[in-house]
Amino acid sequence: MSKIGIIISREYRERVRKKSFIITTLLMPLFMLALYLAPTLIMSKGSIDLQQVIVVDDSPNKIVSSQLESNDIIEFTILEDITKQEASAQYADKSSAYGVLYLGSNILEDSNDLQFFVNESASMLIEENIMGQLERIISGEKMRSYNIDGIEEIIASTDVSINNLNTVKNDGSGDEDQMKSTSSIFSYLLALFLGLILYMIIILYGQMVMTTVIEEKSSRVLDVIVTTCKPFDIMMGKILGIAAVAATQIAIWGVLIIAGSQFLIPAIASIDPSSDAGSAINSLLAQITDFGFIIKLMVAMLVYVIGGFLLYASLFAAAGSAVDNAQDGQQFSTIILLPIIFSLIIMMQVFNNPNAEILKWCSMIPFTSPIVMMARIPYGVENWELLLSFAILIVSFIATTWIAARIYRIGILTHGKKPSWKDLGQWIRG
After folding, report:
1. Do residues 55 and 101 lie in contact, with contact meaning Cβ atoms separated by under 8 Å?
2. C-beta of residue 62 within 8 angstroms of C-beta of residue 289
3. With contact defined as beta carbons under 8 Å apart, do 134 and 152 qualify?
């Protein structure tokens, strides 16, 4: 067995046996499932109880309040012969009413001639419900003022709601049946998930490499190991060993998440297919049956996870070898993390315009491409862009590993001195 293989085996066995590994492996899928389930639970359990809203209407003939419609969350009560001051004083207790809605005498000309006195923190849902009804009523009254024949039918016919935009990928064939269904909602969720997964892997396991090197250097363990192994073998053994730990943990997470997702099936079945969520689900079902897309996604995920991790892990290993304690290492770590943080910020722009020039450039730059490109893939990326990005990432990894190895071979034997940037440059030049 090669020396690198021995180091890989040692690093792997040492970490998978730790309680922290077992605990995080079991708890992370539960945490991720909770993130998916939380919105559903909040919507089902956090619904607003029926609230009473007192209405004081000074509009002509109370024409506005007479058209207000009570619903599942609001019950309107219209008061006669009372001023807004009297009503707000009389219903100042939240046990008597949620609030008092005042409609001014000039509300048909000035839609802002109104006030809403609430007895507790205002609910956006209630406010939007009231504003929506008032906008509909005032717009209708303005149209009626033109005395157009059949205006009621016209108003009714113009009340249109689009619940689902059936979006398909135009492949130029002209055959709608062959075009693949797509959805910005689904692409958004998938891009966010993939980008954050890569971010987590690089941060968590990359810094683990640095921490391990610092600990062993401080305890002088590396001084002993280096007598039998080349510094490059030690560095690669540690990086690949921790990479194996990451791969094991991610594989277990995948199995547990797939198994746990079965609990989501009843919730998915109850979703209205015409809603936004239903549209995203339909798009998801269409995508997971597209084996070409799945293969492309899995290959990209594999390449960018491995390439991105190895690229940054080599830098973290070099940083760990150059310092004697975690505090000094944190300074180098901050510099290494800057491109990752920038990638996360840039990734958010993918949702607005996945084909923006800055995103295409960041998809090619090796320090940002793992996160940015994975966020763009669900929206559709040309194969030549993927291949070019892959090639640049692999070449950059090789170059970065060579530079990191030059720093590592000297840094692990240097104690008691924090190197300057000039020193690091000299170590690289040899």
Report:
1. yes
2. no
3. no
Is residue 358 a contact partner of residue 349, using CB atoms and an 8 Å limit? yes
Tell me how far CA of residue 213 lies from CA of 320, 364, 406, in angstroms.
5, 30, 15
First to last CA, the chain: 30
Q: Which amino acid is at 81?
A: D
Distances (CA, A) of 425 to 258, 330, 419: 48, 20, 10
What gap in Å lies between CA 317 and CA 240, rounded to an integer?
A: 12
Position 109 pLDDT exceeds 60? yes
Query: For residue 169, with 0-12 CB atoms within 10 Å meaning exposed, 13-18 middle and 19 or more buried, which class applies?
Result: exposed
Query: CATH top-level class for 51-159?
Result: alpha beta
CB–CB of 107/113 below 8 Å? yes
How is 150-214 classified by DSSP, letter by letter?
A: THHHHHHHT--------EE---SS--TTTSPEE-HHHHHHHHHHHHHHHHHHHHHHHHHHHHHHH
Kindly report, as residue ranges, where domains of CATH 3.40.190.10 are found in the chain: 51-159
Question: What does the block give as tokens for 154?
Answer: 């016209």
Structure tokens given for 276: 């936004």
CB 137 within 8 A of CB 59: no
Q: In the structure encoding, which two tokens stand for residue 106, read together?
A: 């000039």
Separation between Cα atoms, residue 43 and residue 267, nearest integer Å: 12
pLDDT for 170 equals 47
Residues of the chain above pLDDT 90, percent: 2
pLDDT in tens, 151-209: 767 766 776 655 554 555 545 554 444 444 455 556 666 667 777 777 888 788 888 88
